[in-house]
Amino acid sequence: MASSLTITENTPLSFGSLVVIQDGTNAAEATLTAAGTFTTAAPTGTENLVQTGTPTPGNFTVDTGVTSFVNVEVTFPATATLTNGAAPPGNGTFTVDTFQIAAPSAGTFTGATATVGACNTAIAGGGDCQFTTNASGALTFPMGATITVGSATATFIDGTYTGTYDITAAFF
User: 138 with 71: CB under 8 angstroms?
Assistant: First the structure.
């Protein structure tokens, strides 16, 4: 009998409420770490992203349906685009990339990505992270990323900007 993998989004990745300050030349950027620290990139010119809400790292569980200690590889996205579905055509977008994780709260790192640093280096290079599930057959980890204004000249309408990305898991 084969087992299947289920990935559950326990907490969505959210950059909170942002104010975009554009200078028409440079695109503002900020990073939300998997530990929950929000840091704006040093401005070039006067562009900036100002955090006015509460950012929250994503949190995900991979359930293998197997009782214990199996190896899984998790693949993270290279990029995602956030748009405001209520805004008119031509409204600004955000790019989300440089996904990163912190140590799992259930399960452990293994194989070629046996540390947080090795895992995040693999993600940055388009590779997978390797894990061993816990005694319950689960793996739970937090995830952060970098958000960048899509265009230094775009106009941003107030509202909610959303997007999708794929996280996949496989036995190895």
Answer: no
- Report pTM: 0.92
Write the pLDDT tens digit of every residue in 114-127: 999 999 999 999 99
Which one, of 2, 121, 5, 124, lies nearest residue 61 by Cα? 5
* Average pLDDT value over all residues in the chain: 94
CA triple 56-58-64, angle to 5 deg: 155
Q: How far apart, in whole angstroms, are the C-alpha atoms of residue 121 and residue 85?
A: 33
87-101 per-position pLDDT tens digit: 999 899 999 999 999
Torsion over CA: 94, 99, 134, 35 (sign): negative
Instruction: Write the secondary structure of the chain as one string of H (helix), E (strand) and C (coil).
Output: CCCCCEEEEEECCECCCEEEECCCCCCCEEEECCCCCEEECCCCCCCEEEECCCCECEEEEEECCCCCCCEEEEECCCEEEEECCCCCCCCCCEEEEEEEECCCCECEECHHHCCHHHHHHHHHCCCEEEEECCCCCEEEEEEEEEEEECCCCCCCCCCCCECCCCCEEEEC
